[in-house]
């Protein structure tokens, strides 16, 4: 008896995986349609379909490759050999998982990225900064740790050199009173180590929101290469802006990640 003789079982497992994935992709299967619809990203159906297709391709190829390699293993295969075959699956399935999760309300609250793409604006009206999430193909790596929940705020070197701040703004409505999150420089950031780069949170009409950091309230915190945690009071706010303030230094590419963010 060898691994190949168990192929029917593997095909059954693979079919089961696709059933589970399909259920996740159908809002009515797991959550009330109205609840999930309200949390879907504000993008067109065509764009959302393309995001799913982009995530499904690598996931499907990884599953097929793993299935073929598992079938080829001898019956004497070790646990280490099996783990080596499936080691790439979490990375390949990560974007699909993140895309599904980005459209569903978290048990602990709603994330900013689940509200859709923010409005992005730089100083003096410049619009060269950008935004990405794991669901859109971005990778969030802070202090050599990969995160699947959160978003990344990007300001390329030419933009960094011409403006002193950039803002990412979400319309959050009236039901949220608090934001908890962690933030830090992404591994791709070439400005890391510059403690003068600040993060701020703004409410309606751009008013600074005091937030809790290390047990004290402040209005700005320097970004570091490790994660730091904040809690922002959103009472009476209908919009939230994350502002990054850049120091006067030579141009560099700024990549700042906010992870594990939750609106409640």
**Overall 3D geometry?**
elongated
Order of helices and strands: HHHHHHEEEEEHEEEEEEEEE
The total count of strands amounts to 14
Number of helical regions: 7
CATH-defined topology of the largest domain: Jelly Rolls
CATH class of the largest domain: Mainly Beta
CA-atom Rg in angstroms = 21 Å
CATH architecture of the largest domain: Sandwich
Termini separation: 55 Å
Largest sheet: 7 strands, antiparallel
Q: What count of domains describes the coordinates?
A: 2
User: What proportion of the residues form beta strands (DSSP E)?
Assistant: 25-35%
Based on helices, strands and strand pairing, what is the structural class?
A: alpha+beta
Tell me the helix content.
Answer: 25-40%
Strand order of the largest sheet: 2-5-14-7-12-9-10
Mean pLDDT comes to 78
The parts where pLDDT drops under 50 for at least 5 residues are 6-43, 104-108
Question: How would you describe what is shown here?
Answer:
By secondary structure, the chain is α+β, with helices and mostly antiparallel strands. It has 2 domains: 3-102, no CATH class; 113-263, Jelly Rolls, CATH 2.60.120.200. It contains 7 helices and 14 strands. It has helices at 7-25, 27-30, 33-39, 45-72, 79-86, 89-102, 157-162; strands at 119-122, 130-132, 140-142, 145-147, 150-155, 165-171, 178-185, 198-202, 211-213, 216-218, 221-222, 228-233, 239-245, 254-263. The strands form 3 sheets. A 7-stranded antiparallel beta sheet has the order 2-5-14-7-12-9-10. A hairpin with a 2-residue loop joins β9 (211-213) and β10. It is elongated, with a radius of gyration of 21 Å.
């Amino acid at each position: 008896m060898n691994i190949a003789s168990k192929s029917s079982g593997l095909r059954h497992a693979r079919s089961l995986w696709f059933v589970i994935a399909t259920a996740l992709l159908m809002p009515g299967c797991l959550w009330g349609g109205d609840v999930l619809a309200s949390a879907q990203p504000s993008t067109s159906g065509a764009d959302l379909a393309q995001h799913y297709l982009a995530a499904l391709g690598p996931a499907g190829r990884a599953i097929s490759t793993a299935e073929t390699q598992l079938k080829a293993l001898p019956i004497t295969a070790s646990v280490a050999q099996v783990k080596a075959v499936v080691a790439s699956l979490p990375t390949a399935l990560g974007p699909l998982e993140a895309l599904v999760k980005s459209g569903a309300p978290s048990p602990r609250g709603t994330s900013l990225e689940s509200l859709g793409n923010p409005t992005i604006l730089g100083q003096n009206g410049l619009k060269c900064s950008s935004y990405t999430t794991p669901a859109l193909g971005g990778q969030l790596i802070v202090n050599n740790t990969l995160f699947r929940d959160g978003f990344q705020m990007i300001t390329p070197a030419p933009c960094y050199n011409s403006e002193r701040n950039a803002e990412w703004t979400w319309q959050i409505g009236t039901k949220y009173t608090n934001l908890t999150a962690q933030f830090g420089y992404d591994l791709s950031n070439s400005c890391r180590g510059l403690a003068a780069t600040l993060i701020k949170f703004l409410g309606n009409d751009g008013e600074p929101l005091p937030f809790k950091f290390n047990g004290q309230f402040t209005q700005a915190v320097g970004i570091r290469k490790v994660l730091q945690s904040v809690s922002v009071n959103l009472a009476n706010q209908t919009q939230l802006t994350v502002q990054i303030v850049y120091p006067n230094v030579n141009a560099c590419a700024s990549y700042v990640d906010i992870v594990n963010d939750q609106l409640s």
